[in-house]
Amino acid sequence: MHIPTELTTDRLVLRPWRDDDAAFAFDLYSRWEVARFLGSAPAVMTDQADAARRVARLRELKDDLRAFRVVSLASSGEPVGTVMLQPIPASGPTEPLRPSGDTEIGWHFHPDHWGNGYATEAAGALLEAALLGGLPRVIAVTYPENTASQRVCERIGMRRLGPTDAYYNMRMELFARP
After folding, report:
1. HSE-CB of 46 using CA atoms within 13 angstroms
2. Where are the alpha helices (DSSP H) in the chain?
3. Quick count: other Cβ atoms within 10 Å of Cβ 155?
4. What CATH code is assigned to 7-177?
5. Domain coordinates of the chain in residue numbers?
6. pLDDT tens-digit readout, 59-93
């Protein structure tokens, strides 16, 4: 599998996270409207050091499973969010959870930029790059009440497979492509 390290769409650049992106990560993840759909016990980020650690974790994704910081071309390079491909853990009784063998696509966008189609554009570009690069299947899981992310899944051509508890030890909505 091969995915380019940078992707460009009509309005966005998807590029690797850098250490100097920690301030944007803090601004993004310190907002409840972003954090509320992340993890089994959602919590807002309250410490700048947590942002640096988050950026370091995003940078560790490699071998074509990686995170991209999404930058708007229209606003002189303003950061707007992130998209990523990552291994998704299977549900189970032990911590850390064991790998499922599936690859998850995900996105987190700054609320100031919601409603502009950036999530659809960026996630669509990454999904196409993953499939063209040789990944046979990509999944997405969303909280059942996260209808905005479910609409993004549908707009980028993912098919709703229904409720699942196969990942993260949580009941989620499952989408897949192809």
Report:
1. 3
2. 22-29, 32-35, 48-60, 118-132, 147-155
3. 14
4. 3.40.630.30
5. 7-177
6. 887 666 788 999 888 767 899 999 999 999 999 98
